[in-house]
Amino acid sequence: MPSKVRLFLDHPLAEGQGVPLDADQAHYLFGVMRLGPGARLSVFNGRDGEWEAEVADAGKRAGRLVAVAQTRPMAMPPDLWLLFAPIKKARTDFIVEKAAEMGCRRILPVQTEFTNSERIRADRLRAHAVEAAEQCGNVFVPEVEDLMRLPEVLASWDPSRTLWFCDETLATGAAATPDRTGAPGAVLIGPEGGFSDAERARLRALPFARSIRLGPRILRADTAAVAALTLWQGVEGDWR
Amino acid sequence: MPSKVRLFLDHPLAEGQGVPLDADQAHYLFGVMRLGPGARLSVFNGRDGEWEAEVADAGKRAGRLVAVAQTRPMAMPPDLWLLFAPIKKARTDFIVEKAAEMGCRRILPVQTEFTNSERIRADRLRAHAVEAAEQCGNVFVPEVEDLMRLPEVLASWDPSRTLWFCDETLATGAAATPDRTGAPGAVLIGPEGGFSDAERARLRALPFARSIRLGPRILRADTAAVAALTLWQGVEGDWR
C-alpha cells in the first residue's frame, strides 16, 4: 500500500491546475488524514494519469489543491469487461473491488434467472471501484453500470468482443483456457445457483461466446471472478 | 450452493455408522436449520468422502446421525499449499476461505519482516476453512497451521516442493506462468508492504523457488492469493 495519500478526483489535471475540494474530500484530507497547507499527495482522475498535488487551502468544509507535476502517465488496462450477477452485499462489493484491481475497464451487473437481488446501488459500487483504484495505485477507474437483464445485454452485444462464460457443467478434460484471439473480452460470472438450462443453452449458441471451466471444485462467485479474470489476463491481457 | 444441509463432522463415516452430535452441531441442525428425526443431510469428515446421513435423535443440546450411503468418494486436491502473511482480520479470513475453495491442502500463515499482525487465531481460521468446504461441496478440508516465522518455514523446506513466490518487482516481460514441472507446489503471498529486500534476495536464491509475476497492477493480498492459485492450478494442478 502506498504510504502517501492517494485520491481520485473528477476534475481535469494539468501543471498548475487548481482543483476545488468538496466537503467529503476536505473532511478526508484535512480531518481524517490530517494534511495541512503545503502537504503533498497523489491524485488521479482516470484520464490524465497520476499527479503530485499540493494543498493550497485547507478548510473544514472545502479546500483547494494545485497539481504540481505528473508522476505517472495515463495508461488504460486491456479492453476487458466483467459481467456478474449480484449476490449478497458484501460479496458484490468484493467483486467490484476485485474487478478494479484486476484491470477491468467496465463492470456490468446483470440480472439472470437465478439472481436473487433485484436491486443494486450502482453509486455505492462506483465508490468501491474508486476506493480499490486509490488503494492499488491504478490510474484508471472502471465504469460501473446500472443493473441490466442478461438477455438485453446479450441482444445488443458487439460480436467482436469475446464473452468468456464460466460453465461449471463443462466436462472434465475441457480446456481451462482457450487460445489467444487478441479480441476485446468480457468475463461472465453466474449467480450462486448457476445459470438456468435455458440460459446455458442460449449462451453456448452465441457465436461470440467461449465456455471456460474453472477447475473441478465449486467456487463462490467472487473467487470465480478473480480466477476467470486471471485466466483472461494470462491469455489475452497484459499478464502475458 | 447446494440446497441440502452439508456438515463437516470429525468422526469416522461408514454405512450404518452412528455419529454423535455436540451442542453446537445440534443447535445448528435442529435449531437453525429446523431438521427433525428422519431428515436427511450430507456429511463429510475430510477422509471418507461424502455421505448421506439421517437424523436419528434430535435433542436441544445433543443428537445423533446415522450414515446411510456414500454419495461421493474421497478425492484429494492436488498437492498445493498456500503460505501467506496475515493481514487485517476480515481479509485473512477471506484468504483462508479462498485457499479452501481453490483446493489447497495446507494453509501456512507466515510472519515476514513487514507483517503487522503478530497473532492469529488458528482455530478461527480452521473454522473458516471448514465452512468454505461445507459451502463449496468439497470433501476435504485444508489443514491450517499456527503462525510461523518465514525463515523457519524455509529452513525446513522439502526442496522437492516448488515454492511459487509472487514478486511484484519482476520486470515486465517476465513469464507470468512457469512451465509445468509436475512437482508438489506452494504459493507464497507477501504482506501489504511487500517483502523486504533481504527477504526477496533470500527467496530468489532458493533452489526450489520460482518467481512469478501477477500482472502490472498492484493486487491486494487476497486477490493475489486467488490469482496465484489459479495460475498454479492451470499449470501444475487439476485445472489443466
Short précis:
Chain A has helices at 23-32, 89-101, 122-136, 150-155, 197-205, 221-235, and strands spanning 6-8, 18-21, 40-44, 50-58, 63-72, 80-84, 106-111, 143-144, 148-149, 162-166, 185-189, 209-212. By secondary structure, chain A is of the alpha/beta class.
Can you characterise this structure?
The structure is a homodimer of 240-residue chains. The first copy, chain A, contains six helices and twelve strands. The first copy, chain A, is α/β, with parallel strands linked by helices and 240 residues long. In chain A, the strands form two sheets. In chain A, strands 6, 7, 8, 9, 10, 11 and 12 form a seven-stranded parallel sheet that branches. In chain A, a hairpin with a 4-residue loop joins β4 and β5 (63-72). The relative contact order of chain A is 0.15. Chain A binds chain B through residues 1, 77, 94, 97-98, 101-103, 135-138, 176-177, 192-193, 213-220, 223, 226-227, 230-231, 233-234, 237-240, and chain B through 1, 77, 94, 97-98, 101-103, 135-138, 176-177, 192-193, 213-220, 223, 226-227, 230-231, 233-234, 237-240.
